[in-house]
C-alpha cells in the first residue's frame, strides 16, 4: 500500500498473535464498510431519489438548515447544548473518577485547555457544534511537527465533510488456511472459524481538495485514483459522527434525516396555500356582452373590441421600476368576458366572489408541529406567546424533559471529538501510553455549562418529597424501620453514597463543622457526670492511714458528737 500522509500511533513492540478471535470484524458504527483492496468501491444508488451519494446527502442537509423553521429549531437545540457565557468556558474536563496522581490530572487539564485554544472553542463553539449537527460528522486534521512529534499537535485544521471520506480496506492474504469472511462466503464444516484472518485491515481517510465529483451512475470513486486525492492516516484526522447510521445503505446520517419528508410536505402545503390564495382571493367581474344575431366570427370580433375598449391592465416591473401596459395578455385572475345571444337579458355585469376560509391555517400548523417533532424540539416552543417560568415540576411539560435528555445525549456524542484529540496529544507527549489510555479513557468526562432548569426542578421536588417522607417516618425509626432502610428505600442512597456520606459526616464532626445534636450532648454530659462521680467515691473509701490530710483526727476534735473515741466520764455501764 502507498505511504499514508500524516502519522499513526502504533506500539513499538510487535503484538503477539491474539488468542481471542472472532469471525466477525470490528463493527462499523461510523458507517464505513469493509472493501477488498482489489475491488471497486461505489456508493449506493437510491432509486427513490432520496439521495444517490453521501455528497448529495450532506448538500441536502445544508440546504434544509437554511429553511426558517428548521433554522429556528436548530438554534434552539444548539443554544441548549452550548451555553454561551462571558465568564465561563462552555465545556470543562472532569477527572473526578480518574484514579491517577494529582500531577497527571493537572497535565491533562492543561492539555485540554490547549486543545480548546487551538479550536478557539470558547468563541466558535456555536459554529463548531452547528457544523457537526447539520452535517452529521466533523473532521479536523491534526497537524504535528514530523521531526519533533513529542511536541504534540501544533494546529487543528477543519476539513469540509464534502471533501473527505473514511474508508476501511481489507487486504487479501495468501495463506492457505486463511478464510476471508466476505459477503456470501459461508464457511463449511471443513473451515475452522479460528483461522479467520483480519490482520490485513487498513483504515484511512481520502481527502479530495476539490470535493468529490459524481459520475453518470451517481457513484464516487474513492480508491485514490484521482489526481489530487490524498490518503490520510487514521490517527492524523480527528473524526466524530452523529452516531446515526443507515444500516441498509452503510451511510452516516445527520439528526436532520428524519425531518426531510416533513420539511418537503411543509414546503408543498405552503406553496399550494399561496397559489390558492392568489388565484381565489380577488373578486372577479363577469361581463355578459349582448352580441344579438351576429355570426360567430363577427360576434367574437365584437367581443374583443369591447374588451379592448374597456380593459386596462397596468403592471409594475419590480426590476426596472417601470409601469407598462399588458392588456394584450389574458389571465385567470382578471375579468371574464362572455357573449350572450339575442333573447337573453342583454348586457350584464356581475361579480364572482372570492374563495372562502382563506384564513384557515390548521393544515400548515399541523405540518409545522410535525417538523418540530421530527427534530425533537418541543411543540410548545413554536407558540408566539410561549412564556418561560420556573414553577413546580408539575407545570413542566414532558416534552421539555425529553428534550433535555436528547441534548445531553448529543453532548455525550460530541465529546468524542475532544476524546480523540486529547488521546493523540497525551500519547505524542509521552504523558500516557496507548495501553494506559485505554484504561483511563472511560473515566474521563466532560462537563458542559447547563442552563436548562427543568430537570433540576424535577430533582429538587423529588428531594423535597423524600425529605418530607423522612420527617414523617422519623418517629417510627427503631420501632418499625431501621435507619438503613430509611436511607436506602426513601432517600434512595446506594452503598457508595452511604459509605461516602458517613465518611464526610465523621470528618465534618471532627473538624467542628457539624455541631453535635442534643442527644449526643446529653450522652456526653452523662459520661462526664459518671466520670466525676466515680472519682469522689474513690476518695470517700480511703482509710485514715492513706494520708494525713485525708484522715480524720478524732483525738483533738472538740465536737462531742464526733464519731471518734467516746467520752465515758460521768457515765456508768
Explain how this protein is built.
This protein is α+β, with helices and mostly antiparallel strands. It has helices at 54-64, 68-81, 102-119, 121-135, 260-280, 296-310, 362-374, 398-428, 434-440, 454-473, 483-490, 495-511, 518-540, and strands at 34-36, 91-94, 137-144, 153-159, 164-170, 201-207, 230-233, 237-241, 244-246, 251-253, 284-292, 314-316, 323-325, 336-341, 348-352, 445-448. Strand 12 and strand 13 form a beta hairpin. Helix 2 (68-81) crosses helix 4 and helix 3 (102-119) crosses helix 8. It is flat, with a radius of gyration of 43 Å. The protein starts with 33 loop residues before the first strand and ends in a 33-residue tail after the last helix. The model is unreliable at 19-24, 33-49, 175-190, 214-225 and 540-573 (pLDDT under 50).
Give start-end ranges of low-pLDDT stretches: 19-24, 33-49, 175-190, 214-225, 540-573
| Discrete helix count | 13
How many extended strands? 16
Q: Helix and strand succession?
A: EHHEHHEEEEEEEEHEHEEEEHHHEHHHH
How would a crystallographer describe the biggest sheet?
4 strands, mixed
Strand % is 5-15%
Overall pLDDT confidence: 75
Class computed from helices, strands and strand pairing: alpha+beta
**What's the end-to-end separation, in Å?**
134 Å
- Please give the order of strands in the largest beta sheet: 1-5-6-7
Tell me the helix content.
25-40%
Radius of gyration: 43 Å
What's the overall geometry?
A: flat
Sequence-ordered SSE layout with sheet pairings:
Elements: E1 34-36, H1 54-64, H2 68-81, E2 91-94, H3 102-119, H4 121-135, E3 137-144, E4 153-159, E5 164-170, E6 201-207, E7 230-233, E8 237-241, E9 244-246, E10 251-253, H5 260-280, E11 284-292, H6 296-310, E12 314-316, E13 323-325, E14 336-341, E15 348-352, H7 362-374, H8 398-428, H9 434-440, E16 445-448, H10 454-473, H11 483-490, H12 495-511, H13 518-540
Parallel strand pairs: 1-5, 11-14
Antiparallel strand pairs: 2-16, 3-4, 3-8, 5-6, 6-7, 9-10, 11-15, 12-13
